[in-house]
């Protein structure tokens, strides 16, 4: 049964922006851009002022992204997450070329999940992007090149929350500490890119206090490691032109960890010496498809993205002996830009829990789902409001619920990502 506080809906009407016809950029306002090369949701996509990746006004280029989220729901037992307004993340990014061969960047983030607040080095890497044969290499801590959307930070996605598939299989966007090599080349007129990554540490990091029952099976940041505790990732992608202002992109991604570490602590006291160690094998594959078209004369755009995931691996059981089995996930979204200022769309995810143990694709009854509709108002290229209504179905035996979310994102200075496609 879905529940939503009755007093909440009338209050939300006052948060809606004025109608599209009433919106006037006004003198001096920075007008948002419809940049076909930029991912949907990306702010600060022009290349004027401080907006380039490397701003000559500062060394290094500096930017700050504020992501404020209010989520309201009648969901029982979730006071740590809902019915409050929180600074979900305040992100400081720095980037600078260090020599003719490459550059370095870092993202320092203060994140409030509702359950806790933490300051962390979210990304910090050196990227050698001018190596021979169109090769590039990065090393450090970074968002893994897995699927179309893993390298995009949460506040830059077209919707408020991470998809449920990523949360269930990785615990959120997948971060690696290690190295990753890339190569760009052409097959005729088709631009193609591949990457291979190797990480000594892999963690899923979601800025919302949510995730699947086995969402944190990433390699733990403590304990003795051998070569079998590393993780390997790979991706192959191509991008086709569609019309005069559009593209169709496809990609195949995979990750394999022969012995990802998981530590069980019986008394809940880290470092007590009572931890039991499990090494769990995990392989995840994904197919991603993205279509984006832009009508430059009407200043409208349409974007469709779909990803199909499969996890093959082990999971821990109450008996303590790891069991094996596959789990599937499917998620996607559609967004229509009515103008550079206004956009609306839908997003949906369906996934099996990691311990589904099904034998075929989408078999078994252990599944969960989320569905959402969202409305986005870009006040400028650096200031955005988003209203979202989501229906959450946690799975069999658990009550579904509605969530109303309001997101306010603002950008100061330089804003860029290491991988754009």
Task: Describe the 3D structure.
The chain has 421 residues and is mainly β. It has a single domain, classed as Porin (Beta Barrel), CATH 2.40.160. 3% of the residues lie in helices and 52% in strands. Strands 1-2-3-4-5-6-7-8-9-10-11-12-13-14-15-16 form a 16-stranded antiparallel beta barrel. A hairpin with a 6-residue loop joins β4 and β5. Mean pLDDT is 81; it is low at 1-29, 47-51 and 211-224.
Keywords, please?
disordered N terminus, Porin, 16-stranded antiparallel β-barrel, single chain, 16 strands, 421 residues, 2 helices, globular, mainly beta, 3% helix
Number of helices: 2
What is the terminal separation in angstroms?
A: 40 Å
Arrangement of strands in the largest sheet: 1-2-3-4-5-6-7-8-9-10-11-12-13-14-15-16
List the secondary-structure elements in sequence, H or E.
HEEEEEHEEEEEEEEEEE
Query: How many strands, what sense, and barrel or not for the largest sheet?
Result: 16 strands, antiparallel, barrel
CATH level-4 homologous superfamily: Porin
| Percentage of residues in helical conformation | under 10%
CATH class: Mainly Beta
